[in-house]
Amino acid sequence: QKEVEQDPGPLSVPEGAIVSLNCTYSNSAFQYFMWYRQYSRKGPELLMYTYSSGNKEDGRFTAQVDKSSKYISLFIRDSQPSDSATYLCAMSASNTGKLIFGQGTTLQVKP
Amino acid sequence: GAVVSQHPSRVICKSGTSVKIECRSLDFQATTMFWYRQFPKKSLMLMATSNEGSKATYEQGVEKDKFLINHASLTLSTLTVTSAHPEDSSFYICSALTSGTTYEQYFGPGTRLTVT
Fold it and tell me: How many Å lie between the alpha carbon of B76 and the closest alpha carbon of chain A?
């Protein structure tokens, strides 16, 4: 079993839809949770960072962490074609920076 | 957000030669940098952790003599792929960890290495 599981998709939605992206994990020691967006042939871009459980909102993006279920989510409201990219979840057990990544979910938002 | 650059963005080299990739944090100091490798449609695989002024820590299965990492300053880390082979062809990405009270890791744009 992988430490971090993420459905690779692809996920295709119409413009304006609410997108839900998820990851599950097995290591209960994980405390730091991130979501990155990666466009083709580019480096990942940090979208959201959450420490421990709870919700965090930034514009159209909301990140949720449920440590009891070992489940994290990223919601994108009013999705735009420019949101089309691969979304990677990442997590760490310490603040040393060593991240474990999910496989990434490819999202396509159709106009 | 913080900016991390990589150079070159793309490199083609012949089998048996060495190639150096630079990673720079442009507007912040990074005591820790990381090197990842990414295969097509795959996630990032951590290769090593680079700390300024000390030896890099390599992940299991990564050959330290093949992938030489130097972290000479708080803004620069280099990855040298020695005696490159076609199977070393990949997308190499570095990241830098900001210091202070927040925990945020910023990635460079990546370097596409092709070994012929």
Answer: 17
Question: pLDDT by residue (tens digit) across B3-17?
Answer: 899 999 999 999 999
Q: What is the pLDDT of residue B116?
A: 96
Instruction: Report CB contact under 8 Å: B107, A102.
Output: no
B11 and A CB contact within 8 Å: no
| Other CB atoms within 10 A of residue A44 CB | 31
Pick from A31, A78, A76: nearest CA to A58: A76
The two most distant CA atoms of chain A are separated, in Å, by 41
The alpha-carbon gap from A94 to the nearest alpha carbon of chain B, in Å, equals 10
B100 touches chain A (CB under 8 A): no
Asked if residue B102 has pLDDT above 90, the reply is no
